Amino acid sequence: MASPATLLVSVRHQAGALRTLQAAAGPHPPRSPPQPSHTQTFSASRSGTAWHSLGEEVDVSKPGGAQKLEEDRKAPGKSPKEGEESGDLSPLSPGKPRPERLAQPGLARRETLREMALRSKMSRLVEATSQLVQVEQTLLLPLLQQHPLPLHPKDSIEFRNICSHMALQREGQQFERDLHEAHQCLKTIIEKLIRSLAVFPSDSYIPVRSALREILQNLLAM
Residue 155 to residues 14, 126, 163, 191, 213: CA-CA distances in angstroms? Predict the structure, then answer.
């Protein structure tokens, strides 16, 4: 049977794992610098030319060009010339995908779904760990002061070690394996606590067990 000091040791390791998980769940650095957009690329290739309306250009390097630009800006109701550079500057039609979005649509979709699944699983793990630490400190610790319970602090130590190893990976297959192992380890910790509460001599354990079951359900939610 475990004393309150044993529970505090377990909570300390779980709290350390929680801090590691919160850091690992932060935004990842970009893998490559962002590519210039279609409009930016086109504008860069037209350096030295002033664009003052859609489809119309004035070369300020020629005599009178700057004056014509200023006059055109002041002229009310002036409409852009039709047909000039329309193929490059005209916006895409509504619902028409951009060319870069057409490249390997299946691959991009699979990567997006995979990243969403990992982010959701990590989020559930962080939330469940935070809730478990709170329940142990506020509900379970007072019960241990009245009646000792069988606890397993080694599981919490293993959980912290898995989270620390996972934080070093950040991505890839090893990261996914560590994330799965962390889920299983936390699941084991909660299930053992629920079974331990079954030997409590009074009904005061019911709120704790109910809270633990809710945490477990949220952790395993798909």
Answer: 10, 17, 12, 11, 18
Residue 45 placed within a domain: no
Average pLDDT, integer, range 4-20: 94
**Residue 159 lies in domain:** 4-25+112-220
Structure-derived torsion over alpha carbons of residues 196, 202, 207, 213, reported in degrees to the nearest 10 = 30
Q: Which residues contact 100 (CB under 8 A, 6 or more apart)?
A: 38
What's the pTM value of the predicted model, to 2 decimals? Answer: 0.63
pLDDT tens per residue across span 71-87: 555 555 555 444 444 44
Residue 203 lies in a domain: yes
Distance spanning both ends of the chain, measured CA to CA: 35
- Return d(Cα 85, Cα 17) in angstroms, integer: 58
Question: What is the total count of domains within the chain?
Answer: 1
Q: What pLDDT does residue 149 have?
A: 82
Residue of 194, 186, 192, 193 whose CA lies nearest to 218? 186
CA 19 from centroid of its chain's CA atoms: 16
Q: Is residue 206 part of a domain?
A: yes
Q: Which of 140, 166, 184 is nearest to 17 (CA)?
A: 166
∠ CA 136-190-11, rounded to 5°: 35
Is residue 120 in a domain?
Answer: yes
Q: Give the residue from 122, 142, 132 showing the smallest Cα distance to 200.
A: 142
Residue 183: pLDDT band with limits 50, 70, 90: very high
